[in-house]
């Protein structure tokens, strides 16, 4: 391997790029002090991995970058590249020629290394230098003023020099690396052994826990299989029963309403009848008292009247001697009285007939009103029943989710499992009647989309549907969606068009938290009244947006149109609106029914009262007619008698005023009697009706109580059924993660339910008796066992690796001992010979400081120039130390030639004769070793193969040029003059 070129740019004084081409042999670099010739040595040393800034004559590594001068700016980087010829004595690089480079940038602490222009590591560079023997710490690079240090070096430092020369430094470095690796391996092995021991302690209890867990899982799986069938059977059976109970509940509500209505009707009538009876009783008592008072008065007057009547009869019959005139007057008076009675009775009869006629008219008219009221009541009751039935049907559809897709239905029914569940789109948007068709056309299937808080909730729900074969659903995460908008200019254009109603998002309402949902679904959609105005607007906006009409016709973005006869069946928004409308009708119809029932009761009461009055008046009329007939007969008899005695005049003593009073009292008594009988009849009828109504009400109450008791039992049964169904579904969801639809796939319809229930109970008891079970123990044991096996395998691998490393170290020790021994023996032989030539006699040798420890023993140098007995090298003069070091260097190069050796003014302390010997030795050694010598000695310059001169044409900037010997001598003379 041979160095054929050195390139440097920005390194120290090399502000301008310098290139030195080397052809092998001995090349000298000369120049005055301060010209920067030694910077070539530093540059080569730096490329080979020198990390000490002091070794490069600086305070820090940034100092190697050109710092600038009065005429030159500082540079931002330093770069040095060495080019090698690898054709002879090659190293392990698969190229005939290769380069190594190092670059550093100002302000950056990191260095960059390259091999053949490709990035490399410092370690790779050092391996090349160690393999070639030209590392920065070997004899291949000897800096200015350091040659004597070799003579004064410690035995350990000399050992390093010999290891570099023998090629064992690479093995030493590898050994050190192997020892570090061995140390790390031993630490890892120790830690691994501790972990394995800990895993063994964990594994033993886990074995028992895992066995217990397996039993638990087997029984749990068996329990799952049986219990799912039991839960599904319970759900099916009780769902059927629940449907029956719901139908019975509807019938119960109808029957209960009827019975309550009857009870209310009876209560109202009974209350009114009670008031009527109380009034009639008071009236009867009052009439009875009046009748009694009049009777007493009549009795008193009749006693007196009888006496007078007897007297008159005696007169009339002649029992008393009277005149004809008196008889005639007596008959006349009797006829007048009878005539007065007849007139009175006829008046009473006419009054009764008129009253009866009026009552009959009222009864007839009221009968029509009652029939109309009953008809209206039946109509209102029918309307109410239809409304309630319609509400029940719609609610049943909603409850059964009949309009929902399978996936949507399953998520809605299990919404409590998802904390982020909000509602369906249709449940969050409020739409006015006139816009329902338009909004339903826009949303279509999106009305069933499920609104959730975040996409994570949607993922959980989707996984739930997948796991349970629950169908598919679409989710809208509020945290993800963004509002959609229409360009404001386009909105202004739309507002100028006839038929434009507004943005769809502005025609509906949502809660504030769902504004983003409203604008996401409807924010970029326009609404018009008709398809014609919609078409015109869409064309005007160049079909950029969807336009929808009130009939639900759609013109989509791009111009595609959908329309026609709208479906009459109400969709989700229509159903909600219909329920709201119907629920508003229920209280109105209830109020109408109550008012009609109250009016009917009042009319019926009035009808009953008038019918009773009419019957009483008919009875009174018959009584009065009978009395009238008696009076007419008596009148005829008296009139006949009167005619016979008309020619006879009787003077009768009479007291007309007295008789008139009796007649008046009798008339009053008769009227009172009629009234009293009428009131008593009304009271009797009212009492009978009261008893009948009370009996009917009691019977109705008994039926209602019995109905309530039966319904209470059914309510309990329904609650039990719902609880069992809910518990079963909850158990399926929470325990087994299944929907009822999924569980039905595992259902065994042939299972004997009682036996299955007993088995479930026994399995649960067995599981309880297991106590605490660590189900994770199975997996944990598997993981621990797997890790244990892996670690044991790793332990074996590391142990094997440890043994391999130890064997490698042992082998490297053998190689180091072998190579160092071989090198020391060869160098020792050459050293004495070279020493004698350089000193003109004397003797020198190399010895081990620890002959029994050749692996690590230091190396000592013993030198005795002619005529001297000094053994301590430190006591020699500077020139003698340099000459001893040069002798050692040449001995090593003869025994173990290096491909390259850089010597920086190593002969500076020698006298001229020794300089010549030095230069001649270089010529002898150049066949095996390439030399780059930095010198100012003429004896050296005269005996080199190539010369480069260093100068600073620009202050602070080094340049190189080829020189001949004459030029070299002139440069040397200039240096001497400068020194003088």
UniProtKB/TrEMBL annotation:
Report if keyword Ligase is assigned: no
Q: Which CDD domains match?
A: ABC_SMC_barmotin
Coiled-coil stretches are 175-202, 242-341, 621-696, 774-818
What is its subcellular localisation? Cytoplasm
Biological process annotations from GO? chromosome condensation; chromosome segregation; DNA replication; sister chromatid cohesion
Which Gene3D superfamilies does the record associate with it? 1.20.1060.20, 3.30.70.1620, P-loop containing nucleotide triphosphate hydrolases
Pfam families in the record, alphabetically? SMC_hinge, SMC_N
Q: What is its main location?
A: cytoplasm
Q: Which residues bind ATP?
A: 32-39
Please indicate if the UniProt record lists Ligase as a keyword. Answer: no
Q: Which GO terms describe its molecular function?
A: ATP binding; ATP hydrolysis activity; DNA binding
Subunit-structure text:
Homodimer.
Q: What is known of its domains?
A: Contains large globular domains required for ATP hydrolysis at each terminus and a third globular domain forming a flexible hinge near the middle of the molecule. These domains are separated by coiled-coil structures.
Free-text function comment from the UniProt entry: Required for chromosome condensation and partitioning.
Q: Which family does it belong to?
A: Belongs to the SMC family.
Q: Which PANTHER family match?
A: STRUCTURAL MAINTENANCE OF CHROMOSOMES PROTEIN 3
The protein in question is named Chromosome partition protein Smc
């Amino acid at each position: 391997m041979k160095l054929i070129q050195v390139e440097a740019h920005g390194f120290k004084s090399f502000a301008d790029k310098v290139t030195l081409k080397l052809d092998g042999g001995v090349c000298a670099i000369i120049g005055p002090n301060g010209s920067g010739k030694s910077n070539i040595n530093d540059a080569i040393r730096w490329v080979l991995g020198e990390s000490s800034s002091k070794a490069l004559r600086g305070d820090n590594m940034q100092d190697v970058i050109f710092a600038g001068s009065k005429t030159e700016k500082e540079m931002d980087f330093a770069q040095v590249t060495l080019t090698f010829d690898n054709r002879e004595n090659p190293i392990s690089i698969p190229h005939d020629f290769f380069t190594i480079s190092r670059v550093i940038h100002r302000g950056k602490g990191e260095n960059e290394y390259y091999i053949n222009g490709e990035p490399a590591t410092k370690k790779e560079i050092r391996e090349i230098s160690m393999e070639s023997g030209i590392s920065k710490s070997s004899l291949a690079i000897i800096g200015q003023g350091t040659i004597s240090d070799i003579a004064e070096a410690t035995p350990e430092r000399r050992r390093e020099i010999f290891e570099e020369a023998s090629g064992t430094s690479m093995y030493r470095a590898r050994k050190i690396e192997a020892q570090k690796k061995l140390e790390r391996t031993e630490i890892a092995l120790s830690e691994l052994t501790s972990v394995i021991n800990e895993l063994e302690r964990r594994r033993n209890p886990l074995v028992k826990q895992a066995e217990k867990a397996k039993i638990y899982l087997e029984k749990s799986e068996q329990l799952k299989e049986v219990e799912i069938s039991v839960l599904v059977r319970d759900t099916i059976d009780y769902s059927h029963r629940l449907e029956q109970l719901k139908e019975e509940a509807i019938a119960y509500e109808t029957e209960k309403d009827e019975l309550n209505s009857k009870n209310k009707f009876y209560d109202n009538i009974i209350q009114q009848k009670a008031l009527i009876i109380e009034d009639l009783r008071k009236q009867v008592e009052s009439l009875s008292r009046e009748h009694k008072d009049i009777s007493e008065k009549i009795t008193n007057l009749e006693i007196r009247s009888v006496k007078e009547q007897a007297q008159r009869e005696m007169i009339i019959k002649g029992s008393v001697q009277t005149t004809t005139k008196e008889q005639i007057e007596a008959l006349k008076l009797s006829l007048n009285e009878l005539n007065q009675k007849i007139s009175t009775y006829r008046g009473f009869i006419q009054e009764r007939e008129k009253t009866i006629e009026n009552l009959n008219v009222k009864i007839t008219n009221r009968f029509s009103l009652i029939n109309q009221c009953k008809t209206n009541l039946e109509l209102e009751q029918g309307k109410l029943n239809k409304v309630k039935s319609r509400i029940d049907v719609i609610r049943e559809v909603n409850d059964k989710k009949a309009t929902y897709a399978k996936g949507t239905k399953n998520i809605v029914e299990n919404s409590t499992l998802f904390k982020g569940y909000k509602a369906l789109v249709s449940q969050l948007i409020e739409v006015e009647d006139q816009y329902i068709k338009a909004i339903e056309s826009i949303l279509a299937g999106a009305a069933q989309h499920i609104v959730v808080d975040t996409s994570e909730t949607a993922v959980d729900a989707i996984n739930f549907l997948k796991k349970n074969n629950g169908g598919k659903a679409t989710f809208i995460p509020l945290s993800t969606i963004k509002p959609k908008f229409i360009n404001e200019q386009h909105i202004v254009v739309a507002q100028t068009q006839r038929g434009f109603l507004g943005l769809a998002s502005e025609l509906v309402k949502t809660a504030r938290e769902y504004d983003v949902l409203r604008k996401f679904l409807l924010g970029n959609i326009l609404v018009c009244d008709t398809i014609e105005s919609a078409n015109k607007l869409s064309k005007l906006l160049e079909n950029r947006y969807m336009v929808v009409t009130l009939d639900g016709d759609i013109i989509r973005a791009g111009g595609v149109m959908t329309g026609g006869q709208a479906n009459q069946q109400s969709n989700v928004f229509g159903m909600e609106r219909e329920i709201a409308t119907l629920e508003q009708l229920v209280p109105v119809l209830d109020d109408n029914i109550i008012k009609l029932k109250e009016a009917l009761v009042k009319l019926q009461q009035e009808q009953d009262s008038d019918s009773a009055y009419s019957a009483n008046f008919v009875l009174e009329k018959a009584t009065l007619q009978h009395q009238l007939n008696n009076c007419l007969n008596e009148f005829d008899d008296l009139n006949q008698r009167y005619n016979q005695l008309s020619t006879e005049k009787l003077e009768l003593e009479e007291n007309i005023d007295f008789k008139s009073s009796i007649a008046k009292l009798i008339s009053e008594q008769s009227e009172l009697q009629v009234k009293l009988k009428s009131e008593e009849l009304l009271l009797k009828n009212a009492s009978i009706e009261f008893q009948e109504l009370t009996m009917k009400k009691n019977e109705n109450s008994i039926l209602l109580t019995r109905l309530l008791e039966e319904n209470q039992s059914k309510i309990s049964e329904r609650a039990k059924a719902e609880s069992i169904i809910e518990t079963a579904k909850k158990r399926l969801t929470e325990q087994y993660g299944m929907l009822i639809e999924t569980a039905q796939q595992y259902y065994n319809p042939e299972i004997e339910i009682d036996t299955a229930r007993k088995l479930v109970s026994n399995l649960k008891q067995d599981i309880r008796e297991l106590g605490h079970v660590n189900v994770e123990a199975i997996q944990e044991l598997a993981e621990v066992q797997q890790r244990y096996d892996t670690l044991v395998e790793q332990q074996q691998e590391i142990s094997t690796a440890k043994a391999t490393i130890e064997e490698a170290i042992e082998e490297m020790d053998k190689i180091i001992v072998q190579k160092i021994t071989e090198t020391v023996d060869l160098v020792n032989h050459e050293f004495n010979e070279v020493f004698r030539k350089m000193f003109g006699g004397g003797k020198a040798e190399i010895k081990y400081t620890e002959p029994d420890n050749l692996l690590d023993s230091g190396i000592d140098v013993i030198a005795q120039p002619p005529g001297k007995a000094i053994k301590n090298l430190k006591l020699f003069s500077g020139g003698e130390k340099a000459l001893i070091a040069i002798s050692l260097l040449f001995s090593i190069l003869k025994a173990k030639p290096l491909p390259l050796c850089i010597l920086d003014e190593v002969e500076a302390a020698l006298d001229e004769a020794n300089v010549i010997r030095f230069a001649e030795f270089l010529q002898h050694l150049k066949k095996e070793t390439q030399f780059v010598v930095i010198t100012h000695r003429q004896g050296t310059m005269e005996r080199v193969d190539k010369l480069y001169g260093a100068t600073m044409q620009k202050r602070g900037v080094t340049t190189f040029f080829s020189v001949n010997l004459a030029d070299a001598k002139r440069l040397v003379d200039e240096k001497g003059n400068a020194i003088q």
